[in-house]
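Hey, sorry to bother you again with one of my protein questions. There's a protein on my desk that I can't quite get my head around. No rush at all, and the record is pasted right below.
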Amino acid sequence: VQLQASGGGLVQAGGSLRLSCLGSGFFFSMYRLSWYRQAPGKEREFVAGISGSGSVDYADSVKDRFTISRDNAKKTVYLQMNNLKPDDTAVYFCKLILAQFDYWGQGTLVTVSS
């Protein structure tokens, strides 16, 4: 199982980024995938999740600004982030739970300048 996150970068407050997470080694369309983030000095926190059938849920802090989606043909889950704020600065990780194990991608850094 591998998860490869990409798309992070430096953006000004109010800007947008789209993160991607490419999955391999498992039956992609069957599983829920999630995005988490970890800011410096803070614990990792849930951002958004999407089930295999497309049901989504979000942390309150990102509702109405972030959108999670997936393309099962491309084995990729996306996180569209709009109206970014300095508090969104963090390393973003994608996560899969499979057979009671947690699998994490390597993380991609998002830095939002004020």
Q: What stands out?
A: The chain has a mean pLDDT of 97.
